[in-house]
Write a structure and sequence with these properties.
Elements lengths: L2 H4 L6 E5 L4 H15 L5 H14 L3 E3 L2 E2 L2 E3 L7 E11 L9 E9 L4 H15 L2 H9 L3 H10 L4
Parallel strand pairs: 1-5, 3-6, 4-6
Antiparallel strand pairs: 2-3, 5-6
């Protein structure tokens, strides 16, 4: 398993999430992560994700976004993999709506690790076959299994 795979667990994989906007997705993710991570609270996570989006969209193009931010209260990075029931506008560079997200939250001092993880996410999600496999998943369990077992070129 790669370091990216170590960031995921069954609780942090959401298949076919219903959301109608970028803000709503970020709000739902913040709520979800705070519900399962005792050290996190919804508002600081949501505010940090929103603040990062204000700097520029975290959409990579081809329907993929990688919202990421530093969050107080974390002692190690965590990830949340999400497919959306319907694509949403995400201010992507190619103008395409987003339906596949990998949310990365890191501790405030994890600078190099943050950059390394972002590079790994970008590499993996630039593989169209990998993304296609994730999009075909019909449950959170199959989404997690695909994410971990499928190998991007």
């Amino acid at each position: 398993m790669s370091s990216l795979d170590n960031l995921l667990n069954p609780q942090r994989v959401l298949c076919q999430l219903h959301a109608t906007s970028k803000k709503r997705v970020l709000e739902l993710v913040a709520q979800h992560v705070a519900d399962i991570e005792a050290s996190l609270e919804v508002e600081p996570v949501y505010a940090s994700l929103l603040e990062r989006e204000r700097l520029g969209s975290t959409a990579l193009g081809t329907g993929v976004a990688v919202p990421h931010c530093r969050v107080n209260g974390l002692d190690k990075p965590l990830g949340c993999l999400i497919t959306l029931a319907s694509p949403i506008d995400y201010d992507a560079p190619d103008g395409k709506p987003v339906d596949l997200l990998f949310v990365l939250l890191v501790p405030p001092d994890a600078t190099q690790e943050h950059l390394d993880l972002l590079a790994e996410v970008a590499r993996r999600f630039s593989d169209s076959l990998y993304c296609e496999g994730l999009r075909k998943a019909s449950s959170s369990a199959s989404l997690l299994q695909t994410a971990i077992t499928a190998r991007a070129a």
